[in-house]
């Protein structure tokens, strides 16, 4: 049995812990509810109990190499402190890494705990085992309620000066646009996220000219981006136009990233990424118009997703040689678990 590490995905709703071998085999996964109402000490204790159960189960089969924890929010990488997290109330200025290490009793120079932003470990997971497997230089944009981002260079997470690299969601797309929660106007996540799709749908409903959207909103208490996508699949023109607009803004965002970073691959994750067929055509049209780099490096068939490739075309060298590939993520919600486990064993 190969050596193994522990990957942790600490979210506002779910706490997931997995044992993963050094070659990427999932040994076991534990899923718990994140009981934030009971305070951070309770959450960390439950996490550490699960880590100890998993390490005790597999320690006789292989060496335990460490634990990686993916967590949403602003992290001080040097101290292991969670500065702020919108999804984890009560965790502000909380010493996450120190508390985990104290509970686990790790001796010095033994297994270690690595704390990372959740979007960063998702990017590392997709680079290690997912859509960008074997591609050393890539980035992930997660399209959910907001937009997260992670950059991997030479197989390692790129943190920037103080760990805040990859804030794709707060790149300005409309200088005088909608107010964002960060205080800026016109941020990408106000135009190219699940929340943006819902906002555009409700704006269309307010005009009185989108009856199908209005009917769906009145009959579905959880009306959102998925509802709009279902209408788009049925041919509703208002829903289709919303996704075209979404794709256009996403293309503008990616054009800027491609011009600056010139990476081999950009992977789109998060719930909205599954609506690929509805937004990708306008996204690629925008990319060709706005990015000189993409226009020079676009593949012959950019709409083909990487999991549609035939085996003979699946080698990373042939997929990305002198081309800029944009594709969907493959690992889904497990990307962060795999990436966190991987982060625990990479050189610091």
What structural keywords apply?
single chain, 348 residues, alpha/beta, Nucleotidyltransferase, domain 5, 5-stranded mixed β-sheet, 11 helices, 12 strands
Main sheet specs: 5 strands, mixed
Q: Order of strands side by side in the largest beta sheet? A: 3-2-1-4-7
> How much of the polypeptide forms β-strand, as a percent range?
15-25%
Please, how many domains?
A: 2
Q: Output the number of helix runs.
A: 11
* Helical coverage, percent range: 25-40%
What is the C-alpha radius of gyration, as a whole number of Å? Answer: 21 Å
Low-confidence stretches: 309-317
CATH-defined superfamily of the largest domain: ATPase, nucleotide binding domain
Q: Given the helix and strand composition, which structural class is it? A: alpha/beta
N-to-C SSE series?
Answer: EEEHEEEHEHEEEHHHHEHHHEH
What's the CATH topology label of the largest domain?
A: Nucleotidyltransferase, domain 5
**CA-CA gap between termini:** 25 Å
Mean pLDDT reading: 92
What is the CATH class of the largest domain?
Answer: Alpha Beta
Indicate the CATH architecture of the largest domain.
Answer: 2-Layer Sandwich
Draw up the topology in text:
Blueprint: E1 4-10, E2 14-21, E3 26-33, H1 40-58, E4 64-71, E5 74-76, E6 81-84, H2 96-104, E7 112-117, H3 118-129, E8 138-143, E9 147-153, E10 156-157, H4 194-206, H5 211-219, H6 225-233, H7 237-261, E11 265-269, H8 276-290, H9 292-297, H10 316-320, E12 325-328, H11 335-343
Parallel strand pairs: 1-4, 4-7, 8-11, 11-12
Antiparallel strand pairs: 1-2, 2-3, 5-6, 8-9, 9-10
Helix pairs in contact: 1-2, 3-11, 4-5, 4-7, 6-7, 7-8
